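Customer ticket, subject: "Can you confirm the structure for Crp/Fnr family transcriptional regulator?"

Message body: Hello, I'm evaluating your service for our small team and ran a test protein. I'd like someone to confirm that this is what the system normally returns, since I don't have a reference to compare against.
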Amino acid sequence: MRQKMIEMNNLYSEESITSQFSERKFRQFIETDSIFPTSGVKKIFNRNDTILKSNSDLNAIYFIEEGIVTATIEGEVVVDFYTTSDVLGFSNLMLGSDSFYKYQVLSDELVVTRYAKEDIIEKIINTQEGYFYHYVHMQNRVHHMAKKEELLRLPTRQRISKVLLEFGEKYGETTSEKNIISFPKQISKGMIAQYTNLNPNTVTNVLQKLQEEGYIYTIKSAIYMDKSKLETKLAVFS
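Agent reply: Thanks for trying us out. I re-ran your input and got the following:
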């Protein structure tokens, strides 16, 4: 009995489920499942295009292959960003329901694979694996929202420094220089201000101070950051 409990814990523990049913593996599960095989359709959007807005899009789930999407609410206030391997439309599985956010393409081009939501729902309802994949996705969203709340409680300089580092690593590009990351040019100072719930002038002043201290530098309005220095700075904060 004890051995069986240990085996069950290993199989269904939070850590085990998160590892076995990651969002990266979900894509493979969708297309290779032998009982309810599903195929997606590749679509390309251009900069400033809005997705998940028409009736047909409301019943779709998108896997981002390449590009950056911004999520806004209440008069274009930026609340989140999405990029390669992220999934849009999977949180709300009600058919025909409006999207809570407005999703707009931020990069020059966005490449996605579109799946019919009803096909995904069928997989989730009829397979144990499908349930776990959706569970992990929702847990990831809750964890992300909790981290965002923690971010908004940080002091101003720490808040902006943390966003610079995290956005640089996720959406930016590495350079030929050691530890130097190029901040994504698509994300403006105004977007950083909205995301961090700060005044744009405050963001500008902090960025100028970080530049004076050697943590970041600019070339033709592009922001470059020293990843090692910023990590050290954030470690001192914490």
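A couple of notes from the result: The chain has two domains: 1-151, 154-236. Residues 1-151 form a domain with the Jelly Rolls fold (CATH 2.60.120.10). Feel free to reply with more questions.
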